[in-house]
Amino acid sequence: MAEIRSPRLLMEECRRYTAQLSELRMLLEERLHAARAELARTRPSAVRVRQARLDVAAIEAALERMDRGLYGTCTRCEAFLPLDRLRLAPHVQQCASCAGETRLSA
Ligand SMILES: [Zn+2]
Fold first, then answer.
1. Domain Zinc finger DksA/TraR C4-type spans what residues (predicted)?
2. pLDDT tens, 17-67?
């Protein structure tokens, strides 16, 4: 049976999600800035350039998903991504299972 919640609780939930999204957007923008700064270094190593380019692409894709209202769900199975996972790696777009990180779970 669907849970019935008061408008006040729904508004609180909405505010909480909006605050979490703002926090994650800030994290993404900080990391984008850092990755672009790495690319702008005068003599970066090839490995660092490759990693910085991958970071920039992943972060830009995450920001685009945020703008389209798709951020926070797995791109494969559409499950919600845990906030802890997003705080650690805000550019991640797959759940641990789809990313192949849960080989030990039955
Ligand atoms: Zn998934």
1. 69-101
2. 999 999 999 999 999 999 999 889 878 788 989 999 999 999 999 999 999
Give CA angle at 70 (68, 75), nearest 5°.
130
- State the DSSP code for 77: T
Query: What confidence tens digit (pLDDT) does each residue in 59-104 have?
Result: 999 999 999 999 999 999 999 999 999 999 999 999 999 999 855 4
84 Cα to the center of ligand 1, angstroms: 16
Cα 18 to ligand 1 centre (Å) = 23
User: In angstroms, rounded to a whole number, what is the distance separating the alpha carbons of residues 23 and 97?
Assistant: 25
**Which protein residues have a CB closer than 5 Å to ligand 1 (ion)?**
74, 76-77, 79, 95, 98
Residue 70 has phi, psi (to 5 degrees) of: -110, -5
Distance 74 CA to ligand 1 centre (A): 5
